[in-house]
């Protein structure tokens, strides 16, 4: 029906933003709301005080009000006696000072002689201990300009000034329209090829957070007439529209053609990744933002273009993220001519912020959720070398990052439990873990990119775990190898073990599709050793090149294939209801610098590890045993 | 009834906090809520993924699914023909890859020969362009630990995982009880001595912001039985209680005695100012926080003790404020043995953050509202010298402070209008003004503490305004004097001018109570000149020593006294419905460094000043005329 347009533009992001901002010509509406409900709302006009606060001369102390000039002769040698009602009156804090009195003497400095008479021995100065009219707020003073976001104390000022309702900017209504034949509403059955619609909820909540009022539409099928109908309806009832997916240049990407037909397309494609296939246009006088379908692209594009519109409507500046300078743990490559938004994990190790990129796949929502920050690589930069410094925008509070323990190396399911237990005793602490494999874990400790790494590396020579690798790879460094777990490694197989896999030879003989781990993972090294011992070549193993990054990922793959087979730990098989055939008992230990070993953070961690509650929790999973009473090996002394 | 206890403790704040945290033994409740409503809520338990996402091998591209191994021989010189249904199937992005296919070739790389046949000239590698099962989320993976505050994208992850409801920590219920005979509910009439109850609303909104659920009680009279009843009722229905005022050691400060009677008092008084008279205790198993009555004391005490309890209940760390190092524009004196919380204005001038203290009166709510940050002076520090560097906790986003124009010097009502107009064109900009008087304004420019100062200083010799002062006080500096306004100064008098004041002699002869301005204010200098010309002495003027800091404050004072009289500008008199007798037409000009004069910020300001809209607005007030076509005086050249 519509001609296919293959090429998207590469318009600079800010140019595209300025155009759409200029095109967004909606006049903000005001509404009068009760002040008590106005937290976080934006003032629609300057607010002036209708009267002064205090609105009378008020005593600032408990005491007596006097005429200052009549006390000037008071002295220790010349006590003055004052009469109630004539020369003084009693006042408490907050009481009005009646005329002609003009000073307050604290009750502590007054000698009460009888019900009617007091004695003072010090003069009062005019206006002492009196809060004059308008001390806090002077009538006609501007309390807040327009565009002010009301905070708790601001509401107090309004109420104190008798302003029980306040004119605020109405929240802009933003229509959110999800489209796609593959989408099903949350709660509906998910057949293969079907995806639950969740971007809409995310968009709605971002818009809410920015101060807008989202209206989430039901799912619209990929049919031009239905999309057109939804857009036209939304253009009548919202301040602007966000339409999700169909924004690219594929077979069923109708959106750009429809907007062109109904109005104007300003931009189709921006020079930024991920998030490039954006459409910015206008129909029926209403701005439309077409956002790509992959979640990470979508959230970035929403922030680039929807947030400025919400802020423009409200008359508030766009919030800026805190930034921090980090050392890059890995090389980062970017393309010329486009901005790159790289999701980063950030840790505070050895007094320095260290950051590593997460996956750059736009479909991996968890990479956005797990990210501590965004590295925005400008269009004219092709990347950064490992070890270079760069500025990163934070997605979490700096303190949260500073307090996180960076765990790396081999993946183990108990690390999440450890993190939970830690957070329970100390809410400000947590473990941030990345799965890079045992070998990469050791290297991360060496480069100061993580606090602690989990490793399980069998030495084929000595048949010992870990120690020889640490000695070799961390030679001369002050490190500690801390015994943590014994765990069962074995074959992870479809339920019932249909191919009857018992050992590595069976993989070849029975034609299993093997699911491997990445290079440097302890399990991969174990598998290679098994191959070698059996005299087999990697080339003979179907699936040898297919690498997964965790035990769970291996198990998930095995579960989807009746001929699948993997090597991994028992709890991963158990969690997915798969068969497990034990191969070996391995030692999963923790390696860390000596300074981290001696830190308060690790002491707390060690306490949790050896707590009965944690041990019980771990051993309940099965296939685990927490190592007790083993001596941590301080390796620097031996090596030096 | 109760014995008066005069002395409050001076317990270190953190000690008091740790005690009350330990005493707060409430077990947090969980509640299951719809995920779509869970923004900002805190997870009550770790959340694991019930299945993988994608839950099937999904195509990452529009194209054809093939068996990779069957394409290995494809080459430009050896095109392969594949048959639909047997050797390939069509797939769109997101479609499931049917068995036995294991790779996707992009549609752009496929030559369609007929409905059933395609040609390819390149081999596919296994799993290319396929999003494998669990690429985003692997079944049984921990998505979030307990104590995680849910953000928009987190809700997407939950919904994608089929988790349409989520167990969150219930919001802790916090009872807020305002007490005091002087209090009236908002909207009621305010006689002298009566104060509208607004702290309760502020507390409720702070608690809401921190994640609690406030229950605001009606006002309770200062009667022990009524307070007791309110406390006991709240102890049954809330997780903890905040009671406002009565926390000090005065005549009617019953709270501490009541808590002692009903339970335990842990703390009465902390070593921190303002906010010292705090009570921390427990009745009926429920923690009670007695908060002082003055607003600023109250808000600080609430943050010190109520926020940690809310965060403990929720299992989240207390948020920390961003900090910034500032240069102190004035000397700050503090007392030994107690922390001092000094509200500060912060400006970004000449590439440096410069901060000045606001009033330290605990009753001045606006000082908290206007503050950009808090300087926390530790108990063992007696203060800081002017020019010293200190770290300040920010009460506003750093960017907002960085973008503010620091206006100082003489007070004029048009500055607020200018700020409003500026914010309308550029939402991220605003003017922050402090009223220090013309002379102090010039000194602030000299010391680099402000961007621009408003001045109106008449030289008695030359009868010229401003220029001679700037030449003398800013000698050798590159400054610009920018003509801004002509405005009317005159006597501000009660309506109808009952004392018939016409000139300065009348003040003395008719026994007026004069309201003066602070030293260094242009109006004060004018008044002193009038005195001198009339041959009068300051001692002869009743009220000469009573200093106000703005025209509006003078007018407010005059309004409250039938014998009052002040000197000030016409709009201040007009705003309060007072009489105005003109004395002189004065020149209110702006002084700034040359670099600020040449900045984008000032160019924008100048544009607004000379816009017809702004001029119309200013002249509508009356007594003003915006100066047109006058040449700004660049003073460095003349002086050098």
Automatic annotation (TrEMBL), chains A, B:
Xref: SUPFAM superfamilies: MoeA C-terminal domain-like, MoeA N-terminal region -like, Molybdenum cofactor biosynthesis proteins, Periplasmic binding protein-like II
GO function terms (MF aspect): metal ion binding; molybdopterin molybdotransferase activity
The UniProt record lists the keyword Transcription regulation: no
Annotated keywords: Magnesium, Metal-binding, Molybdenum, Molybdenum cofactor biosynthesis, Transferase
Database matches in Gene3D superfamilies: MoaB/Mog-like domain, MoeA, C-terminal, domain IV, Molybdopterin biosynthesis moea protein, domain 2, Molybdopterin biosynthesis moea protein, domain 3
A Pfam family per the record: PBP_like
Top-level class of the enzyme under EC nomenclature: transferase
Known catalytic reactions: adenylyl-molybdopterin + molybdate = Mo-molybdopterin + AMP + H(+)
InterPro entries, sorted: MoaB/Mog-like_dom_sf (IPR036425), MoaB/Mog_dom (IPR001453), MoCF_biosynth_CS (IPR008284), MoeA-like (IPR038987), MoeA_C_domain_IV (IPR005111), MoeA_C_domain_IV_sf (IPR036688), MoeA_linker/N (IPR005110), MoeA_linker/N_sf (IPR036135)
Required co-factors: Mg(2+)
SMART domains, per the entry: MoCF_biosynth (SM00852)
Family (UniProt): Belongs to the MoeA family.
Protein name per Swiss-Prot or TrEMBL: Molybdopterin molybdenumtransferase
């Amino acid at each position: 029906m519509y001609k296919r347009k293959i090429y998207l533009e590469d318009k600079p992001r800010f140019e595209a933003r300025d155009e759409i901002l200029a095109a967004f010509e909606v006049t903000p509406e005001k509404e009068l709301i009760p002040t008590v409900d106005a937290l976080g709302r934006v003032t629609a006009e300057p607010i002036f005080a209708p009267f002064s606060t205090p609105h009378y001369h008020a005593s600032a102390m408990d005491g007596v009000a006097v005429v200052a000039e009549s006390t000037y002769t008071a002295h220790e040698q010349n006590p003055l006696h004052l009469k109630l009602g004539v020369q003084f009156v009693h006042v408490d804090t907050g009481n009005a000072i009646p005329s002609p009195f003009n000073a307050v003497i604290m009750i502590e400095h007054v000698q009460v002689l009888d019900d009617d008479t007091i004695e003072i021995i010090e003069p009062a100065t005019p206006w002492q201990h009196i809060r004059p009219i308008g001390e806090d707020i002077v009538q006609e003073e501007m309390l807040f300009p327009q565009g002010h976001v009301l905070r708790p104390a601001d509401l107090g000022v309004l109420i104190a000034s008798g302003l029980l309702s306040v004119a605020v900017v109405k929240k802009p209504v933003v229509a959110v329209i999800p489209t796609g034949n593959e989408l099903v509403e949350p709660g509906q059955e998910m057949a293969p090829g079907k995806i639950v619609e969740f971007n809409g909820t995310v968009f709605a909540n971002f818009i809410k957070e920015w101060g807008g009022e989202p209206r989430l539409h039901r799912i619209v099928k990929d049919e031009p007439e239905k999309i057109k109908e939804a857009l036209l309806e939304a253009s009548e009832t919202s301040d602007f529209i966000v339409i999700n997916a169909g924004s690219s240049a594929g077979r069923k990407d109708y959106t750009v053609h429809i907007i062109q037909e109904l109005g104007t397309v300003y931009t189709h494609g921006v020079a930024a990744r991920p998030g490039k296939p954006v459409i910015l246009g206008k129909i029926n006088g209403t701005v439309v933002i077409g956002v790509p379908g992959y979640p990470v692209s979508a959230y970035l594009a929403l922030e680039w273009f929807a947030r400025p519109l919400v802020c423009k409507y409200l008359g508030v500046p766009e919030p800026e993220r805190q930034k921090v300078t980090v050392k890059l743990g890995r090389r980062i490559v970017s393309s010329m001519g486009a901005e790159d938004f790289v999701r980063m994990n950030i840790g505070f190790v050895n007094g320095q912020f260290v950051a590593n990129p997460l996956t750059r796949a736009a479909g991996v929502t968890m990479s956005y959720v797990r990210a501590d920050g965004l590295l925005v690589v400008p269009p004219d930069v092709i990347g950064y070398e490992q070890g270079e410094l760069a500025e990163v925008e934070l997605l979490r509070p700096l303190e949260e990052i500073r307090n996180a323990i960076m765990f790396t190396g081999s993946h183990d399911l108990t690390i999440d439990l450890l993190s939970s237990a830690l957070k329970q005793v100390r809410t400000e602490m947590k473990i941030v873990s990345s799965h890079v494999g045992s070998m990469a874990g050791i290297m991360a400790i060496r480069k100061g990119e993580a606090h602690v790494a989990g490793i399980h590396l069998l030495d084929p020579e000595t048949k010992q775990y870990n120690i020889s690798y640490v000695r070799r790879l961390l030679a001369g460094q002050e490190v500690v190898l801390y015994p943590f777990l014994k765990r069962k490694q074995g074959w992870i197989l479809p339920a019932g073990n249909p191919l009857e896999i018992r050992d590595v030879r069976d993989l070849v003989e029975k034609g299993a599709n093997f699911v491997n781990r990445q290079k440097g993972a302890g399990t991969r090294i174990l598998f290679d050793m098994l191959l070698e011992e059996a005299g087999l070549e990697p080339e003979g193993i179907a699936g040898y090149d297919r690498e997964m990054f965790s035990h769970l990922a291996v198990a998930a793959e095995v579960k989807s294939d009746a001929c699948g087979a993997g090597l991994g730990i028992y709890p991963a098989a158990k969690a997915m209801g798969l068969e497990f055939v034990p191969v070996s008992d391995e030692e999963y230990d923790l390696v860390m610098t000596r300074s981290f070993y001696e830190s308060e953070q690790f002491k707390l961690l060690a306490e949790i590890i050896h707590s009965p509650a944690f041990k019980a929790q771990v051993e309940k999973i099965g296939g685990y045993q927490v190592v007790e009473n083993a001596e941590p090996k301080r390796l620097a002394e031996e090596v030096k």
